[in-house]
# Entry
Amino acid sequence: MKKELLASIGLLIIFYFPILILGEQSWILIHDNLDSEFIYLHLLKESNNLFILNGSGKVDQVFNGLSTRFFHSEFSLIRLLFFVFPSFWAYVINSFLVRLVGIVGMHMLIDTYFKDVKKSKMLTILIPVSFGLLSIYSLYGISVMGQPLLLWSFFNLKSNIKVNVSLIIIFLFPFYAHFAMTAPFLLIALFIFGSGHILMRREISTNYFLGIVVLFIAYVLANSYTIGNFISNDVVSHRTGYHANLGSLRASFETFVNTLLFGQYHSSTIFGLPILLFGLYIVFRRLNRWRGIQLILFSIIAIIFFHSIYEYTSILLEEHLHILTSFKFNRFTFLLPFLYYLILLISATIYSRINTPLTLFAMIFFLGNLYCNNEIKFNVAKLIMPESKTVQLKSFSNFFAEDIFKRINEHIGLPQEEYRVVSLGLHPSIAQFNGFYTLDSYQNNYPLSYKNNFRKVIEGELNKHRGLQKYYDNWGSRCYLFSSELKRTCYLNCNKFNSVVLTELNINTEILKDMGCQYLLSAVRISNANSLNLKFEKSFESKQSSIKVYLYQL
# Structure
């Protein structure tokens, strides 16, 4: 087993070679990552607020000063990594560690509770590696990757073995996982599983339920200030303004099918169809242990169905239970990736004597999921293919364009803390990473009063596009300088290859001035700048970056 574990870790290292070699030229996920979760940690680090735990800190670069109470996961191991290492390498190291936990946990689960799988050395290596290389949001910590280790610990408690070690693992789990993505859902799932065991076996494991209590306490301790701020509610969060968007039956059906086939992207993009079909085959044939697979299949379908109708449920109950929209209770989808792998593990146990077909099947599943992992796939491509073939794959360095923003800062010639900027056609995180103080930002939690005030700046543009209006008013975590013209073209990711020119931009620059804004950083030219009292200063570009920035002074 040790050899198989070392082989699995070795494969993980090999797949990380392209990122290690490319460094900041690596392709890194942007959506809900570099534009938000990554920049939160970077800004906390730059403002010396990584370990301010009582909410008294302030990140001055955001919204004229955003309290640290609005940043989640105050007791997270990831913050320690950002404190010790440069931000890019903290991200890479965390990503590797998270996947390492997934691989080790899966090996431990196989070694103790799925021993028949070990009859095939190939499967013993392939299944953990396949799981460890899933397309996940690594800044959510071990929310997904830690589940095999967590289940191993709870199985131990149920069997009354390795109790102390298991309780320690359970206690530590929330300090490296995302509270909002896992806490309610893991606790509910574990409680249902334990209760079902009591009903079926007519026996109670006190240690198992002790583990649930320990997990609950650890979640509260790890997120005590976040929970306290939510309960105290002395500053009204913009999340109280969340409203569910009325969808359609067709949209719900499409969500159901897409999630069934490819999972939910925040938890993991996973090609689950082969697993589902194989599980259905075992249930239909009523092979050994088919009832276990039947239960997991039912759980998967129930989770996906609930996820697909959640918007309707929220709308019906929103008036009396607004928490259904301010907190997304459909994130049971974070259980899906591991549930697929449980089917695979049980299937491998059933077919342990004829493992060649199953090995081929597992290999196809592995390759399908590896293809879905863009951070692996694109960086392999960037390493082995000519640059002309991969020029459209933005790197970390390309996205943040430090060379361009350094020249913009030198051109302005003022200390960055003395003025404020907004971005158009660019994610504000780019300016933030380069030290600029922004009035716009992507924040999961911030004061509702700021959202309402900033709305006055973009009201003219929101009135021109119903989709943008609903996007901002019903959600608003992206407090951006929106443009209806850009929404129809390059939206938030405009580059120098776009030929877009804004002709009817309608923003309130007077309110921006009142908020302290002196400069607008636009990825496109604004032809009606004069009518908005915007003075064009200069454009900036470089060979190394795919963006071009037009600097306007208010």
Q: What stands out?
A: DSSP finds 25 helices and ten strands in the chain.
